[in-house]
Amino acid sequence: MPTAVSQPRTLYDKIWDDHVVHQQEDGTALLYIDRHLVHEVTSPQAFEGLRTAGRAVRRPDCTLATVDHNVPTFSRKNFKSVTDFIKEPDSRAQCEALEDNVKEFGLTYFGMTDRRQGIVHIIGPEQGFTLPGITCVCGDSHTSTHGAFGSLAFGIGTSQVEHVLATQTLLQKKGMNMLINIEGTLVPGVNSKDVILHVIGVIGTAGGTGSVIEYAGSVVRAWTMEERMSVCNMSIEAGARAGMVAPDEITFAYLKGRPLAPKGEEWDQAVEYWKTLRTDEGAKFDIEVHIKAEDISPSVTWGTSPQDVVSITGKVPDPALESDPIKRGAMEHALEYMGLEANTPMESITVDKVFIGSCTNGRIGDLRSAANIVLSFPPGSRIPDHVQAMIVPGSGLVKQQAEAEGLDAVFKRAGFEWREAGCSMCLGMNPDQLKPKERCASTSNRNFEGRQGAGGRTHLMSPAMAAAAAMTGHLTDVRKHLLGEGEAGDAAAQKAQIKVTSAFDYLTDEVLPPPKPQGYAGAADETDLPANAAAGSSAIKFTVLRGIAAPLSIPNVDTDMIIPKQFLKTLKRTGLGNALFWTLRRVPGTEEATDFILNKPPYDKAKIMVCTGENFGCGSSREHAAWSLLDFGIAAVIAPSFGEIFKTNSMQNGLLPVVLPQSECQKLYEDATNGLDLEVDLDKLEVRRFNGEPSIPFEVEPFRRHCLLNGLDDIGLTMQKDDFIVDFEQKRSDLWPWLDGFGYKKGGGRIDAKEVKKKATKMDW
Ligand SMILES: CC(C)[C@H](C(=O)O)[C@@H](O)C(=O)O
Ligand code: SF4
């Protein structure tokens, strides 16, 4: 709601203020959530929680579900049903479970025969489900993508998914305001992916920790919505909670006419409001970063963290020049994993595979820019025989649009594979995976070890750079392959008889066939969850924990490392202890135990983990990381800093993240290495040592500490605030009527929010 605050505010401040349902004295706020996207990986346990507690989905009109991570991307010509089509049993079970859940809870769902199916972060904006000024969440870290519209959009874990489904709210502490201002003119051949890689290279993967980033400056203002989305998407790789861009005429033009965007008078009313969503003159940011556009060249990663960025004209960095021993160790390890020698020119690195797609770069503009590079090669040019390259449109509608423009023909003629929509090789939860040691030029967002397949080696880059790598067989400076003056853009399109159609051609109701029946085949047996896992995991206590601590000195321990993708296909919260740090604990192929610390006594019985490296738990929102630590027996992790979503997920499950300065972590690391117990006391807020040294104090947010000490369940607490939520919903309907599911019903009728709450019925789009 508009408040009486008169001080200048940032865009983040404004959206935050407009969504506070209730605020506690310690600053913890109950935030209303306008839009909730759901996919098959992070939702089964949440739906099961609702089922067990007998709860409905509060706002089906604000919830949209699709399948993306597990779906195979080969032709669906012979698709009959998910059960028949998805061969891998666990992937199939997750997709079936979602189909089961959307029916049971009455949610709108884009299944595999629906052209609107695709990666959650592509379909939300495409449909106009994502709008300026909203709060938007999804059980997925790249929800930050939607911030490109001037919304507060962030990833959450499964417990929070359940919380939003049940209450349409979340308990949140406000973050810091961070400005990334990019001024100047980008060099031809440099696009928004290069910019965000460059930014992460500058500020690091923990640079945005605790902050919401606003991207501003002349470069950002000139970008299309798609370019803005690619940048906001990777805010999570910079450690930030969210990224955003103030909405402007480019935003409004993108949204106008989208199926779920407001219409008629409400469109005008919405635009009036949206125009107020900009940072006021004189508003203060906690952190400011200023980047000169001219400093950015086509960028590419060399290592296994998104911050391992170098210009394509550069060389693989030399660990010997790094003075910090933890960083040097990480660099040496990364080079060994990547099979690279220090000082190798980046352009001499050959590739085996090329992947163009993902929620970062699977949109129509990305495919056009890749096609333009293919067209810059002499007619008849093809990718070298040793390279396999695939184009995976981010949604069925992107695919349809690209085909209408003839882009598929450009790619296929040059030897690329043309696939169906899905997450594909971005994380290989489906058949698209790298083999060990295969090297991939990828337009995705994460280059973590094993991310695209066990032992696979990923180099992140823009779609144009990836297309150039495909055509040449090695990493190459895209500037060598740009079309000449007057040949770029439309001229290139003509050259290949590409018909660049309006982005809206493929969104009107007329071209959308009614969704076919989903061929639903019933729920899998595996949906049965143990009763203790289903009620939501937050009603778990933490008081004092004493035990063996496992020492670790790896920076940026990402959640892919804590638990790799193949273990995310579970429908349960339990039984994941064996999967913990799988890649480090098992020899690839034989699966024999390695000498990793958790395999060695006494650490195989560790109850605590001490990590001296920063940013523990960064990356994906998978709550499975917390579940696997707990299942192994570890209920407290001590580190200098944590990935934000991991931290929240941990607290929700009774796993305590303890933040201590690196010097203190180092002392505890030595205790752990000497086999000494540690004792973590949440009540007294101290870590006790058993070598005669004084205990070390730490801090935890008072509200979270209170919940953990008393075993309080977030959903239960929020349900007690129902009156506040009802009041908020009434005000919301009055002020922003288009958020109540306008356009969801055929004929434009509005769905009555109160009715929706009482009865879970499928919304008619
Ligand atoms: C599966 C999901 C939890 C995960 C995420 O949160 O990012 C995935 O999308 C990823 O990219 O690793
Ligand atoms: S990052 Fe990759 S796996 Fe995650 S949502 Fe995006 S495309 Fe899917």
UniProtKB/TrEMBL annotation:
| Gene Ontology CC annotations of this record | 3-isopropylmalate dehydratase complex
What is a single molecular function from GO for this protein?
A: 4 iron, 4 sulfur cluster binding
Annotated transmembrane regions: none
Catalyses which reaction? Answer: (2R,3S)-3-isopropylmalate = (2S)-2-isopropylmalate
Which part of the chain is the Aconitase A/isopropylmalate dehydratase small subunit swivel domain? 541-662
The record, for InterPro entries, names: 3-IsopropMal_deHydase_lsu, 3-IsopropMal_deHydase_ssu, 3-IsopropMal_deHydtase_ssu/lsu, Acnase/IPM_dHydase_lsu_aba_1/3, Acoase/IPM_deHydtase_lsu_aba, Aconitase/3IPM_dehydase_swvl, Aconitase_4Fe-4S_BS, Aconitase_4Fe-4S_dom
Q: Name one Pfam family in it.
A: Aconitase_C
Q: Kindly indicate whether the keyword Transcription belongs to this entry.
A: no
Which Gene3D superfamilies would you find in this protein's record?
Aconitase, domain 3 (3.30.499.10), Aconitase, domain 4 (3.20.19.10)
Q: Which cofactor does it need?
A: [4Fe-4S] cluster
Q: Which residues form the Aconitase/3-isopropylmalate dehydratase large subunit alpha/beta/alpha domain?
A: 13-473
Listed EC numbers:
4.2.1.33
Keywords attached to this Swiss-Prot or TrEMBL record, sorted alphabetically, are: 4Fe-4S, Amino-acid biosynthesis, Branched-chain amino acid biosynthesis, Iron, Iron-sulfur, Leucine biosynthesis, Lyase, Metal-binding
Q: What biological process terms from GO does the record include?
A: L-leucine biosynthetic process
Q: What PROSITE patterns does UniProt report for this protein, alphabetically?
A: ACONITASE_1 (PS00450), ACONITASE_2 (PS01244)
- Specify the pathway: Amino-acid biosynthesis; L-leucine biosynthesis; L-leucine from 3-methyl-2-oxobutanoate: step 2/4
User: What does it do?
Assistant: Catalyzes the isomerization between 2-isopropylmalate and 3-isopropylmalate, via the formation of 2-isopropylmaleate.
Give the similarity note: Belongs to the aconitase/IPM isomerase family.
Name assigned to this protein: 3-isopropylmalate dehydratase
Native organism: Tulasnella calospora MUT 4182
